[in-house]
């Protein structure tokens, strides 16, 4: 079940929003205007917070939990593009899209709570305070640059290189013992490889002593091997 109620503590909304670089040290009145109409969205695991094509009237700030951004392929497979966690914004870019619709589905990975903030409030804040608009533009430009790099990497790399780069990305956040945030089938789709190819790679690396584990739990045993494989993904800026 998903339900909405008025946010009981806008102070927490202000705190989480103010911790983001694009909103840090902004005038109090501006921040208050952004959070004034905020509501709290509570969702159980697997519930969609919004659907692709829905009118984009709100963006989300994760208070607790994790959100998958996904689309469905023509074959019905899920492709997870990104995960958002506590303190991160979701769909703020959609607030500025001319068509005014969400470009992806957002699904709560587990139970979670999310502040829902107004599209109109964000646009008004950017109009009234140009430095915020510049920060938003800088942030979105950086994300676009990273997406271009990712597309370039996906089209130019091998399956083993893509898997190594993905595992190393998790390693930077979790350490040597990894908990995959998505299923192996979703991971295969994310990396652009067949599920059986992913399974074979994991099995081969496990037999060679590169990794150990099963399903979503893995231990990285040979970081040097993985780093050498993924080294072409590292850019100078």
From TrEMBL:
CDD domains: CAP_ED
Domain HTH crp-type: 157-224
Database matches in SUPFAM superfamilies: cAMP-binding domain-like (SSF51206), Winged helix' DNA-binding domain (SSF46785)
Name of a matching Pfam family: HTH_Crp_2
Gene3D superfamilies: Jelly Rolls (2.60.120.10), Winged helix-like DNA-binding domain superfamily/Winged helix DNA-binding domain (1.10.10.10)
Keyword rRNA-binding appears in the UniProt entry: no
GO molecular function: DNA binding; DNA-binding transcription factor activity
Keywords: DNA-binding, Plasmid, Transcription, Transcription regulation
Ranges of residues in domain Cyclic nucleotide-binding: 22-143
Gene Ontology annotations for the cellular component aspect, listed alphabetically: cytosol
UniProt protein name: Crp/Fnr family transcriptional regulator
Lineage: Bacteria, Pseudomonadati, Pseudomonadota, Gammaproteobacteria, Pseudomonadales
């Amino acid at each position: 079940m998903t339900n909405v109620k008025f946010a009981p503590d806008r102070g927490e909304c202000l705190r989480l929003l103010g911790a983001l670089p694009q909103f840090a040290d902004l005038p109090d009145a501006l921040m208050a205007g952004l959070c004034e109409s905020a509501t709290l969205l509570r969702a159980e695991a697997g519930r969609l917070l919004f659907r692709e094509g829905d009118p984009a009237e709100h963006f989300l700030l994760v208070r607790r939990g994790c959100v998958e951004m996904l689309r469905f392929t023509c074959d019905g497979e899920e492709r997870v593009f990104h995960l958002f966690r506590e303190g991160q914004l979701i769909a703020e870019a959609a607030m500025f899209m001319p068509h005014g619709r969400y470009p992806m589905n957002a699904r709560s990975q587990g139970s979670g709570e999310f502040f829902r903030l107004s599209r109109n409030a964000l646009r008004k804040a950017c109009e009234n305070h140009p430095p915020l608009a510049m920060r938003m533009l800088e942030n979105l430009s950086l994300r676009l640059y990273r997406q271009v790099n990712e597309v370039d990497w996906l089209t130019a790399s091998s399956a083993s290189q893509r898997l190594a780069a993905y595992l190393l990305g998790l390693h930077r956040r979790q350490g040597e013992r990894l908990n995959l945030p998505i299923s192996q089938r979703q991971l295969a789709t994310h990396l652009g490889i067949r599920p059986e190819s992913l399974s074979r790679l994991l099995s081969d690396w496990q037999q060679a002593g590169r990794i150990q584990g099963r399903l979503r739990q893995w231990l990285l045993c040979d970081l040097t091997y993985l780093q050498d494989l993924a080294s072409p993904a590292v850019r100078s800026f």
